[in-house]
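Handover notes (outgoing to incoming on-call)

Open items:
1. Lipopolysaccharide biosynthesis protein: sequence verified, structure written out, both below. Nothing else pending on this one.
2. Nothing else urgent.
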Amino acid sequence: MPEQSLKEKTAKGLLWGAINNGVQQILVLAFGIILGRLLSPSEYGMVGMLTIFTLIGNSLQESGFRAALVNLKEIRHEDYNAVFWCSTFIGIAAYLILFFCAPLIARFYGEPELLPLSRYCFLAIPIASLGTVQGAYLFRNLKVRQQAISGILAHIISGCLGVTLAFYGFSYWGIATQSLTYLIVVTLCSWHFSSWRPTLHIDFSPLKPFFSFSSKILITNIANQINNNILSVVLGKFFTSQSVGNYNQANKWNATGHQFITGMLNSVAQPILVKVRDDQERELRVFRKILRFVAFIAFPAMFGLSTVTRELILITVGEKWTSSISLMQLLCIGGAFIPISTLFSNLIISQGKSNIYMWNIISQVVLQLITVLCIIMMKGSIQTMVIVYVCINIIWLFVWRTYAHRFIGLKFRMLMSDLLPFMLPAIIACCIGGIAASLIGGHIIVTFIIKILVAAICYMGIMKLSNAEIMHECINYLLKKKVS
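Lipopolysaccharide biosynthesis protein structure tokens:
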């Protein structure tokens, strides 16, 4: 593929990814604000306790097949068909297992209400399994616009339904129904936009060539879900459902920020890196350009979100969520580095090195588990857990860098030269915004607006003075000018 064609595909993919994730995150925020005012932290916590089980079940049914299908240079109907039926059967089996394990889950948390709620929430697993192959088809063929339409439509329908149920007193059942409805709509849309259809000729033999790769992705995805949700489980077991609710509220805002960037990135990174992996020099050049773009967006967005956390929580969901403010500030700082780690993981997967990806994530999860258990034994606070959790995730970025150096020659100085020109200005801009707001004072909404405006102006001003190439390329593309 010609360089210009690849650049154009990447730019279009990132643009549609930005539109998709931007609109989706706005919808998530809008419906989340309404639900946050209608429901209590304890009600949020009930569904939060079950999240890890649903995510692990979805990882099982997906089984790493999505990444495996994308990595195939030549793909056949038989490959898609084998994955479809395997994913469907695993999804049904996973639901049945969790259905009968529901009493144990309710007993583990000491919440009898979790028994019927868990069996309802776990329906997400077989529903999601029906869209795994169609989603992989759209992803492999860079159908980002179609994925955007599916996600946006799903958020609108599910959000309206969830808010309606919460308004009429259905409590946490509204959140559970919202999640299920989202998956149903996304699955239906994926079928609509995908031209591939399964056949009744069931043959699992095509799975054998990439089972070694996909099985490692599966184990890694499960480890990732444990790592991302370990604090919800610990808080639900050793603290209260209210603590889980406060943490989940904080993490929801954090996730809304970094998922906008990671979702945009995931829409193009792996397919693009797969296309250039036979040319190491070109792959390094492509990787570093994407890395600079991610840093340009992630640092000001997430550091800025951390800066306005207090105002944002009080304005949107109210004082009953005050306990989540300090947690959200910490999580947002760590959230700035999540898209960068995601890019590194996409690089490892694009190289076909699922074993390295797997052991790297497992090592990180083991370290997280050990530290969390030590903090519990020492009767540490929730804030201490979050601080350590964030620090480990940031430090692990340099572990990813060592593998990037092995595969594409990314040196430490290259990483720093790609990150620091955006990280330091973002910190400076947010500090100036905070100082300006404190000097001017006024109503909380005024403070919120001043922080955002001053920080944004300072950051873009620094980018202009430093003549940041990535900023000019983004502006030129959006203005339909030719990027040199």
